[in-house]
Design a protein that fits this description.
The protein is α+β, with helices and mostly antiparallel strands and 453 residues long. It folds into 3 domains: 33-41 and 169-242 and 424-449, Periplasmic binding protein-like II (D-Maltodextrin-Binding Protein, domain 2, 3-Layer(aba) Sandwich); 56-149, Alpha-Beta Complex (Dipeptide-binding Protein, domain 1); 246-421, Dipeptide-binding Protein, domain 3, CATH 3.10.105. 28% of the residues lie in helices and 22% in strands. The chain contains 13 helices and 21 strands. The two termini are 47 Å apart. Mean pLDDT is 90; it is low at 1-25.
Length: 453
């Protein structure tokens, strides 16, 4: 009996000793340089990849969609959500050494937020930032976690204007040369030093070149466009993908020829969502006619997604509107989707010309992506409506109430939801512990490199 116990103890110790090296190999290491490649601009809004590495918001988002403290440590509402006070985290400094103060936050938010703010006015009161509004703002803590409201330094402590982007985030900008944005670890970051010493962000790299660099070990993280997600998996790339976090939608003007609501309704019925889903976006994401994804609300099936060409002709009623222009965001998949939509509309009796993205401001139709900024339905819907120019405070909390707001907002057919799409990236073998935030952004500050010293 005693020998049996001793033998089991010895075996347990041996197994534990064998496990120690494996544990050490998987334990995060400090050091090394992450090599990241992207096709677009690092600072583009929303979701430019450099933004959340360099900048922080007053709040950030939990996985369940609720707001948690970031640059603000706590907050409270008064006057039935017409007034909010956010108390700033003490001892935080921008990368240039300037202290984070309530006036610096107010200046930053005033610089990025125009007439479509969730608030009417913003004030610096001691170590707090106070938001007031003529309408209730029940979702303000969640809304402030969005990419749009990240805080950047506008005026340094010596009164000068920063030459580049200066924030409080885990990485700081140290240079830009030959298409490479250099970011180095912020040792005094309020949320702790990132594991990597630096990030090399290579911009304007084609997807083909990104994947080639990943395959030969010259990149650690590259983009996977949603329409190429299946191809990446077939090539055995290690892919991390988010749930649906982007709404593909068609904006329709309500002026000129399309001031007639029946013509806008005909356009909504003429679009073939299934063709976009199956052909252009390779069965990734979800077909939708709702603003919010099905997983967030449970009611999206109430919005019909089927094409009805006969009803579209009936609504057009023999009218022959003048030629329409359709613009789309610049990448190839969006251009192909625009061409497909133009073909759908021609079949419904409309004359449509696809124009370049630079003409979007004057186009009758604009194919666009709207980010899902929250996984909390109430805040997500308000953010989506504001992004679409249909701004209104969302006061409802129940699924039935949110459904009514969506239905009323979409009734005019100035915004036609088409697809819910994920975001995806391919990672190299050196990266450990890479996760995506709720909006699909890679959390590079928490990632480490296996071969770091």
């Amino acid at each position: 009996m005693r020998w049996t116990v001793l033998r089991r103890f010895a075996i347990s110790c041996f197994v534990a000793l064998l496990a120690l090296p494996a544990t050490a190999r998987t334990r995060p290491h400090y050091g090394g340089t992450l090599r990241v490649e992207i096709e677009g601009e690092p600072w583009q809004r929303p979701r430019g990849l450099a933004r959340r590495m360099v900048l922080d918001g007053l709040t950030t988002m939990n996985a369940d969609g609720t707001a948690r403290p970031a640059l603000a440590v706590d907050w409270k509402s008064e006057n039935d959500n017409h007034r909010w006070q956010f108390r700033l985290r003490p001892g935080v400094h921008f990368h240039d050494g300037s202290p984070l103060t309530s006036p610096s936050v107010v200046a930053s938010l005033n610089a990025v937020c125009g007439t479509n703010c969730p608030w009417t006015a913003i004030h610096a009161v001691g170590s707090s930032v106070v938001f007031t509004s003529d309408s209730p703002m029940p979702n303000l803590p969640e809304l402030l976690a969005a990419d749009e409201y990240l805080v950047a330094l506008t005026v340094a402590s010596d009164g000068t204007t920063p030459a580049g982007v200066v924030g409080t985030g885990p990485f700081q900008v140290t240079g830009f040369m030959n298409g490479v944005l250099m970011l180095t670890a912020n040792d005094s970051s309020w949320q702790g030093r990132p594991f990597a010493d630096a990030v090399e962000l290579h911009v304007h790299r084609s997807i083909r070149d990104q994947w080639l660099d990943l395959s030969i070990g010259r990149a650690d993280l590259v983009e996977v466009p949603v329409e190429q997600l299946r191809q990446a998996q077939q090539q055995r790339l290690t892919v991390v993908a988010s749930p649906p976090v982007t709404l593909l939608a068609l904006s329709v003007t309500d002026s000129g020829a399309l001031g007639n609501p029946k013509l806008r309704a005909a356009i909504a019925l003429a679009v073939d969502r299934s063709a976009l889903y199956n052909v252009i976006f390779q069965k990734q994401g979800e077909v939708t006619a709702s603003l919010l994804p099905a997983a967030l609300t449970g009611y999206s099936f109430f919005f019909p997604t089927e094409r009805d060409l006969n009803k579209a002709h009936e609504l057009r009623g023999g009218l022959t509107p003048p030629p329409l222009t359709l613009a789309a965001e610049g990448d190839p998949a969006m251009q192909l989707a625009a061409q497909r939509i133009a073909l759908n509309l021609r079949e419904a009796g409309f004359t449509v010309q696809v124009v370049n993205a630079g003409a979007a401001q004057h186009a009758d139709l604009f194919l666009r992506r709207l980010p899902l900024e929250s996984s909390q339905p109430q805040a997500a819907l308000e953010s989506m409506l504001r992004g679409a120019g249909l701004a209104a405070p969302v006061l409802e909390q129940t699924p039935a109430g949110l459904y009514r707001i969506e239905r009323d907002s979409l009734e005019s057919h100035t915004l036609i939801p088409l697809l819910d799409l994920p975001r995806a990236y391919a990672v190299g073998g050196r990266i450990r512990d890479l996760h995506l935030s709720p909006d699909g952004t890679p959390q590079l500050a928490a990632a480490s490199l296996e071969d770091a010293p």
